[in-house]
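Co-fold these.
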Amino acid sequence: MGAPSFHAPNADACRARGILDRIGDKWSLFVIAQLGDGTKRFTELKRDIDGISQRMLTVTLRGLERDGIVTRTMYPVMPPRVDYALTDMGRTLLDTVGTLVWWAEAHLAEIDAARASYDARAAQTDAVG
Amino acid sequence: MGAPSFHAPNADACRARGILDRIGDKWSLFVIAQLGDGTKRFTELKRDIDGISQRMLTVTLRGLERDGIVTRTMYPVMPPRVDYALTDMGRTLLDTVGTLVWWAEAHLAEIDAARASYDARAAQTDAVG
DNA sequence: CTGAATCCTCTGAGATACTG
DNA sequence: CAGTATCTCAGAGGATTCAG
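Predicted complex below.
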């Protein structure tokens, strides 16, 4: 439990938002996860991340590169070749996100149950009311 | 740092997405952070979370309630009164998110530097190219 | 006080076609 | 192969208004 008590005023939530804006979008997490396996090329990423479009892969990679989370290496060869990899900071983020994944796994069933319960209550209220 | 090594294939990223869909939206994190201080009423939350609209506060609270992260307690009095609080699961999430905030604080400067550097390079490329 | 309903705008993101 | 450019659409979210 390295987590500080986090009696967060808005300020703390604000800092976290910056991070969530980065990894909370639709694709960043998948890209980071994929690069956790090691250096990959554009087409490899596109193939391995199911459903991502060229455009979104490009946009996502640009964002991550800008924030110093991935590196982009171009080889001036024909046909072109570009390698992507996590930076050191990117790897620490991978670790941090790991705790979130852990939490998700630990509470998936509980969340599903809560949703089912809530939906059932809502449906009943609808029918009765 | 209990974080497992997280050599995540897509499956792991997928599970985390569910969580990020919940806390990664524009307001959930602020609400959770505020409720970390203890039970609050609708109007208190609206006042304390700068810039949130009634609508988004309602929508956000409903989502969090549905997922079993906050509880909603109505008092049938006049004028109406509704209290919101974190559930036990909500408190564990607060803890988990704490590690993310910690990461954010630890790397804010590095990220800012990376952005500045990237933007500078981009501007230069633009000018020269 | 708490919230539902309506309207409106702006951005995220997919599909497609083109370039070095 | 690795992008960029353009079009388009759906959904998020704000402002405002109405109701219990």
